[in-house]
Amino acid sequence: MQPIPEALYIHIPFCTNKCHYCDFTSYILKGQPVDEYLDALELEMRLTTEQWKPKQIKTVFVGGGTPTVLTPPQMEKFLSSVHRWFPLADDVEFSMEANPGTTDRDKLQAMKDGGVNRISFGVQSFDNELLKRIGRIHEVDDVYRSLENARAVGFTNMSIDLMFGLPGQTVELLDESVQKALELDLPHYSLYSLKIEENTLFHRLYERNELVLPPEEDEYKMYLHLIDRITEAGYKHYEISNFAKPGYESRHNSTYWRNEPYYGLGTGAHGYVNRQRHMNIKGVQPYIDACKSKLPRLEQYDISEQEAKEDFMMVGLRLLDGVTASRYSEQFPQSTLEVDFGEMIERQIKQGLMERIPADQDTIYRLTKQGLLLGNEVFAAFLADE
Questions:
Q1: What percent of the chain is modeled with pLDDT above 70?
Q2: Does any domain span residue 286?
Q3: Which residue of 184, 363, 367, 372 is most buried, as measured by CB atoms within 10 A?
Q4: The domain boundary residue, chosen from 225, 257, 289
Q5: What are the pLDDT digits (tens) for 236-262?
Q6: Which of 222, 257, 292 is the last residue of a domain?
Q7: What are 102-126's pLDDT values in tens digits?
Q8: Is there a single domain that holds both residue 313 and residue 247?
Q9: 1: pLDDT strictly greater than 80
Q10: Can you give the pTM of this predicted structure?
Q11: How many domains does the chain have?
Q12: What is the domain range of residue 370?
């Protein structure tokens, strides 16, 4: 038995438009039954808490889609339902994703009044031409206006996402965006490379050789440049794609990276409870219909102990602090990290991709700088290990 989750993810799938690279469960807002979806979400909250009664929720993350397309009354209704069904800790980290340009002061006030205390803005770039190229509908001025509104309402814990490896992007263009991002003096930055996913416009263009991307060596240079610039500015590089001032690391995402359980609600959402993973039904109306009678599961399956161990290594090694032998033994009391993965770890150490660090009656295993660049290969090695 896993402990009862202390983390909650909720999916709001509506967007004003679909970005060219996006394969998330998201749907254009116009014409959607938003209020009926929020009613269905509350039904899922009730059914979930009846099956797995929560003790105390320490982190909430509302993702999408673009949750901030909700109107202030809809936002108030939604956040009230969260408080009704889930007991939130006094020091809860309550995050919500936002798109610049969808956060006027009335909406931000509704968010703050409803308990949201952390906002993650999907900025992606400070270059208007690049923003158009990837299908974003906001412009750079919207970023500054949204941050100004958030600060005026009282938000201090804010993060922005930036992307690299975009069509036509160079190291020099990226550096300009990073400089503008750092000038904002935010407590947290997330930096992601473009991935070409199926069922996206970019994938169709890529298949027709109509999408010109930076060469792989330039993408590596961009990533290393980002690390250097942001760490030099005083931020801790605490996860492969994330940087924070001390104390501002994403507590919710750390739940995933530590392979701990979490509730997952909403259409297409994933959850991990009692060593069972589930994915919810996709589609707004199918989700609404399903919630009227039962939990809206598309699939649900048990995770074997071996799979859980592999997951622990794959997600845990994303953290720059790595994994520890003691935390492994906490999750798997009948085994040790060295017994289960010692041979694989030694191979990675010999290849210069991992390192071992003794620490106060414990042992840390983490990626080297070279391992960061080849992280997916390291993770896959543990997945394939027998």
A1: 99
A2: no
A3: 367
A4: 257
A5: 999 999 999 999 999 999 999 999 999
A6: 257
A7: 999 999 999 999 999 999 999 999 9
A8: no
A9: no
A10: 0.95
A11: 2
A12: 305-384
Half-sphere exposure in the Cβ direction for 246 (13 Å, CA): 1
- Do residue 195 and residue 333 come from a single domain? no
Q: What is the pLDDT of residue 384?
A: 58
Which tokens go with 162?
């930036």
Mean pLDDT of 345-355: 96
Q: What is the pLDDT of residues 52-69, one digit of tens each?
A: 999 999 999 999 999 999
